[in-house]
Amino acid sequence: MNFKALTTTFVLTMGMATVAAADQRYVLQYDSPANDASLTNKGKGRKPSKFGYIQTALPLGNGRLGAMFSGGVDTEHLLINDITLWMNAKRGADPVTQSGSRTSGSKDLETVRQVYRDGKYGTKPDSMESLSTKYLSSTEPLGNYAPFTDVLISTGHDPKTVSDYRRTLNARTGLGTVVYAIGNTTFTREFFCSHPHDVLVARYTASDASLNLTIKATTKHKLGQPKAAGDRIVLTGQAKMVQDDIQFMQIVQVDAGDAAVTPQADGSLLIAGADEVTMLVAGYTDYLPVFPAFKGRDYESDCNKTISQAATLGYDALKKSHVDDVSGLMDRCRLELDFEPAGLTTDQLVTTGGSQELENLYFNYSRYLQLSCSRGAPVPSNLQGLWNADLKPMWNCDYHTDINVQMNYWMVDPANLSESFRPFVNWTKILAQSGAHTARETFGVDQGWSMGLNGNVYGFTAQNVHGRRNQQAGHWLCQNLFDHYAFNQDKEYLEEIYPVLKGAAEFFVEYLAPWKDGSLVVYPTWSPENAYLVAQHGKLNKQAYGASWDQQLLLNLFTDCIEASAVLNRDEDFRKTLQNLIPKLCPQKIGQYGQLQEWPEDWDNPKDTHRHISHLIALHPGRDISPLVTKELYQAALVTMEHRGDESTGWSTGWKTCFWARLHNGDKAHQIYRFLTAKRAYANLFDFHPPFQIDGNFGGAAGVCEMLLQSHLRSVDASASTIGEAAYVAYQQDPSMKNHYTPIVPTETLADAPYILHLLPALPSAWPSGHVKGLRARGGFEVDISWDGGKLTAAKVRSTGGGTFRLFAEGVLSDNIELQQGQSHTWLESNK
Ligand code: FUC
């Protein structure tokens, strides 16, 4: 049977159930409105039973402009967000202040390092914590992400008179709907947020009655008044900054056909007797991603232009271009698990405790969320993607660089949404510019750039206000940057990011310092958020040297820089510098319990179930620990995973899904993914930490990709017939210290090594049959995979740019397979 026939059979044998299942894979549906009682998302302990607006309303977004709709019968509440709207920070300051950096330099760094070497634990004035805070940490404000506006549309309908209520969001088309009946009349609303035309669109219709609506626009920020004139509400406002308030504008424009639209003195619009009403919303801030001013957009002119263009096009054309745009991206990659739909609403699916149906929907919805909160924007998705109703959101709704912002982008390439990565690239380029000031001023490092734990949209690169949170992030951010190249093999992109990669490495070349044993380590640092020797020194005892995650990421960064400079044929001396440093990096170590050590000393506590497991970065998202290649490190990673346990926060369970998939334990990966989808999801399937944090949605989707396809290993020996012999290895056992694993120096030829595409590396038994189309693999390939009875049945690998790979399927490693651009290679069970 050929691959096409097999796919057709798969669809046909599912018969009518497939038609229904196709919708169930994409549509979130509810039989009641969102809970609009609360507009806040505060409080760590928020109970899922207290679901409010942000947990129950449904999200729309075009990558920059976001909205949520509540479906309220009497009052529709639209929360509007603009991803650039941050407040309570500075902009336009001198470059050093703008970077947030403490001006101290190498002398103060040495003072701090001395107390690290002296082991001054605790929080006394001469402790590592106190001196790091005193000498290295920022005193400048980070600010917070803030909501833009709220648009309220009142119908005058009494919820008690309503029947057949349905509220849906179709993640394949990006259309939201609200439908209900009053007597014999059906009232329908449709919502979407257009990327091609940069507007939010709402349309109200009634089957055989007229519509009487009141439309209001408000904001929580200081504003001139919302002004209604003609068929528009124009709202201008300012968001408070410590320096240079943000200016913004929103226009709501209404088309009610021949019906009367009457502007009111309070800034609202009254619509009487309309057959149908279309509402357009455009909005911008004056933000521009230009360091250090961060302003200058002609937001008023852009707002007027966007609204006029959208109004000229009209509803049908806007809707068509929107559906074509979203469904085009959604259809690139489709996961089709084989299940019978339960006929439940989405909130019921969550409370029933997990199913293939929910797992399939969660994956597709995560792709939808990704393209909705990160596309065409100057800044990346934040802790809540771009949906936030709170002026004081949890954790500032910022950019945490010790897992969260990186996790937001893990799924982008594997799940075939490459364009969603661009905002992350734009942002890191600004960080590299700003972080050069932090490197120089705080650490006395004249080359390269440095980034701390928390970021904003105004180039904040300084160290966190708490010395115990001293942390570098350039190496981790660059891992995402290079991996995007690995997937797409776009040399122009590599040219663009090369200075950022090189700058990150240059910083560490100078910043690395010898520890007492002579090995080169990063310090001050921490192992994200975790404490050691808690019984002796307390839970704040987090400051560390040579934490395993840093050292793993440095090997990753240096290796990537060596490859990038070889591909671009430049910087031979720099390459040599890195090659000389790699063997001196502090080794990875296996500790007394057989665990991979989190720190260079054997401080791990087997009862520690901390949510961060940063010392497994080399397993995922890195590529240097594998059950097929580095057996001892794999065993040690297994022990660590067992110690850390299963249930945790949303993002932590997303990461654990990825880890177990990389450990090739599909059932365990699935168990954790099921927990994430059923126990860490609100009614609208937003992930909860708690409270809402979007990283878990994206980490979970990345985990699904990892279960079905892995492509992080590379073949450096074309003649070898097993992965163990063929694959590149980054660590080798130290002959004199058996539990030490020292980094290996890569040669330039690694750049030519084909990636190994491993099909179904961790297929869970709970997903016995299914099909996935359009996953992406490193090396520039797209892969379709079908399986049945828990076994691979067919696969197709398409080359998007021409290239060579090796296939690992059903335990067999193929020879090199070379494809021209557009060519494909088919694997069939029958041809085995
Ligand atoms: C990191 C995590 C927390 C939370 C915060 C936003 O600090 O450790 O769990 O996700 O980011």
TrEMBL record:
Biased composition (Basic and acidic residues): 105-127
Keywords recorded for this protein, A-Z: Signal
Molecular function GO terms recorded: alpha-L-fucosidase activity
Glycosyl hydrolase family 95 catalytic domain residues: 314-708
Domain Alpha fucosidase A-like C-terminal: 756-816
One of the protein's GO biological processes: carbohydrate metabolic process
Position of the signal peptide: 1-21
Region Disordered, residue ranges: 93-129
InterPro entries: 6-hairpin_glycosidase_sf, 6hp_glycosidase-like_sf, AFCA-like_C, Alpha-L-fucosidase, GH95_cat, GH95_N_dom, Glyco_hydro_b
Record-annotated Glycosyl hydrolase family 95 N-terminal domain positions: 28-287
Name assigned to this protein: Uncharacterized protein
Source species of the chain: Novipirellula herctigrandis
